[in-house]
Design a protein that fits this description.
Shape: globular
Distance between the termini: 39 Å
Strand content: 15-25%
Length: 353
């Protein structure tokens, strides 16, 4: 595969995405809803004569704060949304008790907007670690190095960046090369913390395997109490660890070529039930398995899973790639994960599942 996106391209993407973003701290009871759109005390003076629309994510966050079932609220017609919003947001004492359990002294919200869209509804205590800030800290560490961009996804809720080191690799079998890399995630609207994970990347099909240690990322920085120096130190340590962890995990993947899976299709059905995979995703895994040279081995099964993950949303892909690594992990897996691995490798256990 040829790497076509550069780190400079990623930085420019984040800068372009910053256009039109704004943050406001507003007393919750001053926010009203009319015709399904939010109105702030200064909405008209800010040029938003038609109020502010809300993203699905921001709507879910606001509903959680107000104690309104999000799924129900989204289905309501505009006039009913207006009535419920304006009733509950006016109840300041109720608002205090329902505000994310953090016992704030005043019921203020941080609204993160982009143009006339509210993209996030957060506590004023939320520490902004925006994509541009994270990249400005990361790029000096990797900008003039060997890393290549293997994946970049920037959407209103999250940012994912996968960097591959093409100088550290191993051919599992002729023509099937595995490389090491890192995977960085962030969210500007409260979906996730800043995380760094080790990645094993398969060159032939761009599959990725997210390697966690005992189910945890190598770095996880919540959006609270963030200092620039601390972020820089955490990122530097995590990058160094990620390369070592990924290189070690390649060796476990090599061994998985010799581990037979007695009944791959039954194993897929079992994993689908355990992991809550849709029927369509399970079919994608089966289809990917047919193209594997070692389709009846653990290596083939894991690569079929990670191949199917590429068809999901970036959040779904990241999650499934992390789950797949559990099947190969023989060093830090929990007892539950070890039992899962043993079950798909043991015909009698799998038949009883």
């Amino acid at each position: 595969m040829t790497f076509t996106t550069s780190l400079a391209d990623v930085r420019e993407l984040a800068r372009a995405d910053d256009d039109g973003k704004r943050d406001q701290i507003v007393r919750a009871r001053q926010i009203t809803m009319h015709h399904g759109r939010l109105w702030l005390p200064d909405s008209q003076s800010d040029g938003f004569d038609g109020g502010l629309a809300m993203s699905e994510w921001a709507t879910a966050q606001a509903c959680q704060k107000l104690g309104i079932p999000g799924g129900y609220f989204k289905k309501c017609p505009s006039f009913l949304k207006d009535a419920q919003w304006n009733h509950w947001v006016a109840q300041e004492e109720n608002q205090r008790s329902l505000t994310m359990g953090d016992n704030e002294a005043s019921v203020d919200w941080m609204l993160r907007t982009k143009g006339s869209l509210v993209r996030g509804v957060l506590s004023p205590k939320y520490a902004k670690l925006d994509n541009s800030q994270v990249l400005d800290t990361l790029l000096p560490m990797v900008g003039n190095s060997r890393f290549k961009v293997g994946l970049v996804e920037l959407n209103p809720e999250s940012f994912h960046l996968r960097l591959i080191d093409p100088t550290i690799w191993r051919d599992v079998i002729p023509g099937d090369r595995l490389l090491v890399g890192i995977h960085l995630c962030n969210s500007e609207v409260g979906l996730r913390a800043v995380t760094v994970d080790a990645v094993v990347w398969r060159q032939v099909c761009s599959n990725g395997l997210v390697r966690k240690i005992s189910g945890k990322s190598l770095m996880r920085q919540r959006h609270i109490h963030v200092a620039e120096a601390r972020l820089e130190s955490l990122l530097a340590d995590a990058l160094s660890q990620a390369i070592a962890v990924a290189a070690a995990f390649i060796e476990q993947m090599v061994l998985s070529v010799r581990v037979p899976v007695p009944d791959p299709e039954r194993a897929i059905a079992y994993l689908g039930q355990l992991w809550g995979l849709s029927k369509q995703t399970q079919e994608y895994i089966k289809f990917g398995l047919y193209g594997e040279r070692h389709s009846e081995t653990l290596y083939g099964l894991v690569n079929a899973v990670t191949n199917a993950a590429q068809r999901l949303s970036v959040e779904g892909r990241y999650e499934l790639e992390g789950l797949a690594s559990v099947l190969i992990d023989t060093t830090t897996a929990s007892p539950t994960e070890q039992a899962l691995r043993q079950r798909i490798l043991t015909p009698k256990a799998l038949a009883a599942a």
